[in-house]
């Protein structure tokens, strides 16, 4: 059962190191701890330091292709002290949803790989590979071996009444060679042949993070991720604080364009932020100050002055942009020819996300893209 929570405001201050404020870090994997098979530089060292300070490290992934034990082995190869119980996958979250709906040993059709099979067995369900087994549910998750036959069989079972679950809807998945189609792309293939939408377990939907909080015993969790539309949006959806790191998919331009439900509590270059305090942003007369930097929006562009840490500058820039985007529309005077005719003033539209120029400001603080 979920607990009522409220995420802190974006760009909040933290007057102690994050590893001291929170008891469990919920880390996304792709783009945060590793990219493809390789670790993100310094990620393992920063996580080991945080663990020594008493922060429990949990590894949370939308990728359902591998069982938790295999993910743990991969992470251990980087020198991290990690076991299977430290890992929570979207396959486990999906299996938990199915187990809450159907009796033990119910047949469930797997459109995916070993990660799904292992998770279903963990929750006492019976994985099957054919719609001829009359499955009560279909669970779909990414695996590189998913083929047309599996997709077609999943569609047949759903059309025959099986309940459909998807581990996640990520359209892409990062690989060592670049972006590739993710589970969301494969879900779309089945959706074209059925008349229902799947129940989704992974981020930004709440089941994966709720399952992770429960399994890891988190009382003061912190979500850490690189993707605004899954990691950060998911944290906001369950009402927990989030840390965005710049080692993965999204960048400063994406942050500036982020809608309210995708804005993080904290922003940082990487996992070294766990050992650091987080400065807030003060606002006075349209000027947004963080550290030695002050930013404001002038003529639809960010002007920034000062000096200091680049990410203090980024926080000031983001605060200025978000305030401009969120500002309510203001009335403007009618043209002179309409003056005195009793007509209502025209509304001045608020700034559109992405319409405010930030390149010069990013260059000024030393964060060129």
TrEMBL record:
GCN5-related N-acetyltransferase-like domain: which residues?
A: 290-335
A GO cellular component term found in this entry reads: cytoplasm
Under the heading SUPFAM superfamilies, the entry gives: HAD-like
Single GO term (MF) = phosphatase activity
Record key words, sorted: Hydrolase
Q: Which PANTHER family match?
A: 4-NITROPHENYLPHOSPHATASE-RELATED (PTHR19288), D-GLYCEROL 3-PHOSPHATE PHOSPHATASE (PTHR19288:SF95)
Report what the protein is called. HAD-IIA family hydrolase
Which species expresses this protein natively? Kribbella turkmenica
């Amino acid at each position: 059962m979920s607990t009522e929570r409220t995420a802190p405001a974006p760009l909040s201050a933290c007057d102690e190191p994050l590893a001291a404020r929170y008891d469990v870090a919920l880390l996304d994997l792709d783009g945060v701890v590793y990219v493809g098979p390789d670790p993100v530089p310094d990620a393992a060292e920063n996580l080991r330091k945080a663990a020594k300070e008493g922060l429990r490290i949990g590894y949370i992934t939308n990728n359902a292709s591998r069982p938790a034990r295999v993910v743990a082995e991969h992470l251990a190869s980087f020198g991290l002290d990690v076991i299977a119980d430290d890992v929570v996958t979207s396959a486990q979250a999906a299996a938990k949803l199915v187990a809450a709906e159907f009796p033990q040993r119910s047949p469930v059709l797997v459109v995916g790989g070993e990660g799904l099979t292992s998770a279903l067995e963990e929750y006492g369900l019976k994985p099957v590979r054919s719609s001829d087994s009359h499955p009560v549910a279909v669970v779909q998750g990414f695996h590189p071996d998913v083929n047309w036959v599996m997709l077609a069989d999943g569609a047949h079972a759903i059309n025959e009444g099986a309940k459909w679950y998807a581990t996640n809807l990520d359209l892409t998945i990062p690989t060592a060679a670049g972006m590739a189609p993710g589970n969301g792309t494969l879900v779309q293939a089945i959706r074209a042949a059925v008349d229902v939408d799947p129940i989704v377990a992974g981020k930004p939907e709440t089941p994966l993070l709720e399952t992770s909080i429960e399994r890891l015993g988190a009382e003061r969790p912190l979500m850490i991720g690189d993707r605004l539309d899954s990691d950060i949006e998911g944290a906001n959806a369950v009402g927990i604080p989030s840390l965005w790191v710049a080692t993965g998919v999204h960048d400063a331009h994406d942050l500036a364009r982020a809608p309210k439900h995708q804005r993080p509590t904290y922003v940082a270059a990487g996992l070294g932020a766990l050992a650091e305090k987080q400065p807030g942003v003060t606002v006075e007369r349209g000027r947004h100050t963080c550290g030695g930097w002050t930013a404001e929006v002038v003529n639809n562009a960010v002007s920034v002055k000062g000096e200091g840490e680049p990410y203090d500058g980024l926080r000031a820039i983001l605060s200025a942009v978000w305030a401009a985007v969120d500002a309510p529309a203001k009335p403007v005077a009618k043209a002179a020819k309409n003056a005195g005719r009793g007509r209502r003033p025209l509304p001045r539209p608020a700034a559109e996300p992405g319409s405010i120029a930030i390149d010069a400001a990013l260059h000024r603080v030393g964060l060129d893209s």
